[in-house]
Amino acid sequence: MAQTVSTLASTFVATSKVASVPQPKPLQAKLCAEGVTMIFKRNGSYVPVLEDVTLSASEGEFVCLLGPSGCGKSTFLNILAGFLVPTQGRVLIDGKAVRGPDPRRIFVFQERGVFPWLTVSGNIGFGLFKCSKKERTSRIAYYVDMVGLQGFEGAYPHELSGGMKQRLEVARALAVNPDMLFLDEPFGALDSITRLTMRSELLRIWEAERKTIIFVTHDIEEAIQLADRVVVMSTRPARIQRIVNIDIIRPRDISSRRYLELRDGILEEIGLAHKG
Amino acid sequence: MNAPLQFDRWERYFWPLLAINITLALWYFSVRWSGTEIFPSPLDVERGMAELVHRGLLWRYTLNSLSRVAFGYVSAVLIGIPAGLVLGWYPAAADMVNPLIQVIRPVSPIAWIPVSIAWFGIGDTAATFLIFLASFFPIIVATMNGVRNVPSMYRCAGRNFGLSPANLIAKVVLPAALPQIVVGLRITLGIAWLVVVAAEMIAVDSGLGYLVIDSRNSGKRYDLVVAAMILIGLTGLGLDIAIRRIEKLKSVRWGFRNEH
Predict the structure, then answer these.
(1) Interface contact A168, partner B, CB < 8 A
(2) ipTM associated with this complex
(3) Do the beta carbons of residue A63 and residue A100 sit within 8 Å?
(4) DSSP 8-state class, residue A238
(5) Which numeric CATH code is attached to B39-259?
(6) Which chain B residue has the Cα nearest residue A172?
(7) Is B250 near chain A, with CB under 8 Å?
(8) Using only C-alpha atoms, what is the Rg of chain B?
(9) Nearest-by-CA chain B residue for A162
(10) What does residue B44 show for φ and ψ, rounded to 5 degrees?
(11) Which of A214, A205, A148, A149 is nearest to A177 (CA)?
(12) Does B161 sit within 8 Å of A109, measured CB to CB?
């Protein structure tokens, strides 16, 4: 009996601290970064950017990397995507070491990564060069629809608004049917209203397609609204400071007590809690 | 706010025509009042122009000059753009060749005339070679810089979608660099037209440049000299208008507007 009580007590402690306890790990992680360290050489001196970062993500999970600007989280994302080779450590995806970029994992860039010399259709169809013409056309139409760019198929990016360009880039990424998406502050350059719309759009798409998403942001609200887990990173050299499970059911009420609790917890974690 | 500076449609033609007419009038009266015997008045030039038409020289010489430019320029484009792409793509190759290019480039193509004649003799080949030289370096440099300035984001995106290196160049690097290349092509065509006139003065016996020098040498026909100069100006303007059309293509135009 006493044992049961203590088990209950520990369960209780665990749930109340749920924010810092990782969820039960699945059998095989989709992505596994082990001891990733990155040191850049600049003007003859060595600048450590990442320090021993170990992180895993399961299939279909939405993970946000949260940290101050310039902390190295983008560098980490570039390593995960295979654009950079870490100084130490390794990245495994589906149990295989990452050796370079791969169409199964598409990177969505911070700024406008869409190709300005191609139309909306041309951009979405860019990665579909191996498909038959018929399949290409139908996929383009499908993803034009999904991101709400109907009527703009023949438009060039400079004729689109910032939000539309970002949606176009997401559509271009989804069109090749990747199993992972890496998003590097994709909404950073948008105005705040568009940013809010884009978040719910992204969630809608993620719920429809269930890609594994690694999303870099410096916006706490954004991280809590979107992610299953928020990985709080320290200032440079970036280390994982804490991993917070966002245990709020979607669609999330951003004025709920739990939401505010989690937000304040993260604010405190990065030393920005209200004083008062 | 800028309303007073914007021309109405009739004004767009009226003011330039007025400027031309004032210049012609100044020219006419200075010739009359100075009583010069050598320098022609606009009316003399007009008669000279008519004589050129009559003798069938106007078209023939203009076409001669244009075809030399076409051969020299097009071959420079066909070699210069691929070479520029390669140099832009491999920084090590560019570092190796760039000092050499930078030494040869400032040498005026005119200085190559004796060498060109020594290699190819008097004739079309020598003149065309000079046009090629004059065009090749600006094109290769513009292409190389265009490629170097392609945002790495575009290359990364291309690689991410699994493009082979050849496809990456054809589908990402070239279109991304195209606006800069097109600017280079336009400037270069202007240079080629400047150079063909100089080359024709020495290396051949046809073309507008030859017309200028020949009219002076055989009987001091300054009316024909000035008529040839006007033809050179008008043809050059036509070439520039023609090549500007490339800048209006949709696949290039994005590079010419300020994105906010």
Answers:
(1) no
(2) 0.81
(3) no
(4) B
(5) 1.10.3720.10
(6) B161
(7) yes
(8) 23
(9) B260
(10) -60, -40
(11) A205
(12) no
